[in-house]
Amino acid sequence: MSSVRRLHVVSGKGGTGKTTVAAALALALAEEGRRTLLVEVEGRQGIAQLFETEALPYEERRIAIGPGGGEVFALAIDAERALLDYLQMFYKLGGAGRALRRIGAIDFATTVAPGLRDVLLTGKVCEAVRRRGPDGGWAYDAVVMDAPPTGRVTRFLAVNDEVAGLARVGPIHHQAQAVMRVLKSAETAVHLVTLLEEMPVQETADGVAELRAADLPVGGTVVNMVRPALDSTAATPLPAPNDLAAALTRAGLRDAEALTAPLLSQGREHVTRLALEATQRDELARLDLPVRELPLLPDGVDLAGLYRLARLLRAQDW
Length: 318
What we know:
GO terms for molecular function: ATP binding; ATP hydrolysis activity. This is ATPase. By secondary structure, the chain is of the alpha/beta class. The chain has a single domain, classed as Rossmann fold (3-Layer(aba) Sandwich), CATH 3.40.50. The chain has twelve helices and eight strands. The mean pLDDT is 86.
């Protein structure tokens, strides 16, 4: 698995399983001796649910060991706490910052200025990417962000460009510039999760165009919940009703004629679905990006299923 990318931003249309993919990727990147940080920015505690653990606090906590023996830490970023960190880092407010929290000024600021919330969230993630450990090496070998959905991710990531333009001097300007240097660097990749369905694929294509227009690095697409491929049924014509009924009778099935219509109906639906999926694969290929696929897990995504997905991702280049 490639170690060039250090920040992996995972987005996707709602319902595509972007949080699952982000968690599986964090596990996959936790190779022997490596440390990965998995970050949640939407306050849904989806990571805690996937790893079957208690709600994540505003602190980095080890939650798993990767298939390769490395460690996975997780963090649920709280915008209010991040603002306190920011005020202490740049303005040394200390107790004054805590007083602001008590009177509700921080909640007021992040509510009135939604862009400020995104600045704080992206800033906290990029701080983890740049942080050094006691030995001078990176504190984390990789950081994976479970980002907002595709329709919002470009504005979420690019907000610091706007802030740097508004605040032309001072610590806010320099912080915004530092964040954008990380987000636009070769160490960062934005991955978009999709399904082989028309709406998610179209939203993925739109998202790729927006990211490229904002000069943000697109890593690739992840096609999630792919149904297992059967024999080449798409190219095999369905039998005539009489032929199917005769074959069912020869197989010893009773009421063969009653079974014929529903079986042919299912067969037509299957062929139609394969044709639609082939069309969506063609659309994704036109984006000229790496395409990775993950299977549909029939029993849903429990902890064992998450590790299975991680092993599949680990075999691919990231």
